[in-house]
Specification:
Elements lengths: L1 H28 L3 H48 L6 H16 L1 H12 L2 H33 L1 H13 L2 H15 L6 H13 L3 H6 L1 H30 L5 H7 L2 H22 L4 H17 L10 H28 L6 H30 L2 H21 L6
Helix pairs in contact: 1-2, 1-3, 1-5, 1-6, 2-3, 2-4, 2-6, 2-7, 2-15, 4-5, 4-15, 5-6, 5-12, 5-14, 10-14, 10-15, 10-16, 12-13, 12-14, 13-14, 13-16
């Protein structure tokens, strides 16, 4: 679990360095805003595709092999950023980074599904997701210090190398598992389940069409779209609408991401405790999902509350509840899908969430230009409520 957590930290660290160092890189490489956007989109496109393809690879190879493979690919890609000399080199590095990073999360979620029974699984997935917030907190100070001390190219070399350091202990872990249990497979029962399903279980096509899965996919598309709004537009909102300077943004806007990290663990522990107290898997998971989505929707009031402190508090509450939602949503996806298709079906939902984020960005820009931030904040509230409605009406979670 510690290695999956650190892998998730490395994943987000390597992805976020570009945004922190963007002014220096643009100056050095002579990039226009259009060129920089092209490099960002190169990552987004391959990340989306890799979420699905990487899920298929993880189902075929298992978490053990896919962890090392994806970590190796994206770490090398991150380090190659140091050799970029222009827009095409940078875009190529971002594309390769997306290929490696997109395949990691389906493998990590499959690993959590293999290692942990349903009543503990949300805790494991919550820890993996909380690592995103840890990466968000670490990236600005670490990458800025490295760039100021040694230059932005060294920052990419150092952060990329961190991921490579995780591969030897991962290999050693599975060597120990093989010595002690006779197999490096962390869950031999998965193999038996898979063999039993080959004759009469759901096919991949049937699983894709199941009501619970489709509703979870649409719910993730809604909630991820709202998340991307907070991720990409929240700093601009506090500067444009609340009058914060850039220094104040750095001073205060780490708080929502800290809240998000706590929320991921809180949501996971909450549903696990409810299961322990006899609520059952379906009732426990869906109860936490619906409450978390409702609390996230309250973030829509950020644009109308008076005072900076209240606005920051509401945003922090919304992100806390969002990751509480995510811990249980990502876990529920593993519980409504056949074990042998977990990674690829999880990857499809991830691609849907990323595409939802792309659509959200194309909508939010014109809305902010024309109406300010009020309408986009209200839109996020509607998205969370829609996601909650999909869970209530269409999702039933089985024990698996």
């Amino acid at each position: 679990m510690a290695l999956l957590f650190l892998g998730s930290v490395a994943n987000y660290l390597d992805r976020a360095v570009l945004g922190v160092l963007m002014p220096s890189i643009r100056r050095d490489l002579g990039l226009t805003n259009t060129g920089y956007a092209m490099a960002v989109n190169a990552f987004l496109v391959t990340y989306t595709l890799s979420y699905v393809a990487g899920g298929r690879v993880a189902d075929l190879l298992g978490c053990r092999r896919t962890f090392s493979l994806t970590l190796l690919v994206w770490s090398i890609a991150a380090m190659l950023h140091a050799a970029a000399r222009g827009i095409w080199g940078l875009a190529g590095c971002r594309a390769l980074l997306g290929i490696g990073e997109g395949g990691y999360y389906p493998a990590a979620i499959r690993g959590a599904a293999e290692w942990f029974p349903p009543k503990q699984r949300a805790k494991a997935i919550g820890l993996v997701l909380s690592a995103l917030s840890v990466g968000s907190l670490l990236t600005p100070p670490v990458s800025a210090w490295l760039a100021l001390a040694y230059g932005w190219r060294v920052a990419f070399l150092a952060t990329g190398a961190f991921g490579l350091l995780l591969i030897p202990p991962w290999i050693a872990l599975h060597g120990r598992i093989r010595r002690e249990f006779g197999s490096a497979d962390p869950a031999p029962a998965i193999a038996a389940i898979t063999q039993g399903e080959e004759g009469g279980g759901l096919s991949l096509q049937a699983a894709l069409r199941s009501r619970s899965y489709v509703c979870l996919l649409l719910a993730r598309a809604c909630s991820d779209s709202a998340w991307y709004f907070y991720l990409f537009w929240m700093p601009g909102y506090f500067q444009d609408a609340r009058g914060l300077g850039l220094a104040a943004v750095g001073q205060w806007l780490w708080i929502p991401f800290l809240a998000a990290g706590v929320g991921a663990i809180f949501g996971a522990w909450s549903s696990s405790e409810l299961i322990e107290h006899g609520w059952g898997l379906d009732r426990s998971r869906r109860s936490v999902l619906v409450v978390s989505a409702a609390v996230s929707a309250a973030g829509a009031a950020t644009c109308v509350v008076p005072g900076f402190a209240a606005a920051l508090g509401l945003v922090s509450l919304a992100l806390f509840a969002h990751t509480s939602w995510s811990s249980n949503l990502h876990t529920a996806i593993t519980e409504v899908t056949p074990p042998r298709h977990v990674a690829v079906l999880y990857g499809v939902t991830g691609a849907a969430g990323t595409l939802g984020g792309v659509v959200m960005q194309s909508v939010v820009g014109p809305l902010v230009d024309r109406f300010g931030y009020d309408v986009p904040f209200l839109l996020t509230g509607g998205l969370y409520l829609t996601a909650a409605g999909l869970v209530i009406r269409g999702v039933r979670i089985r024990m698996g």
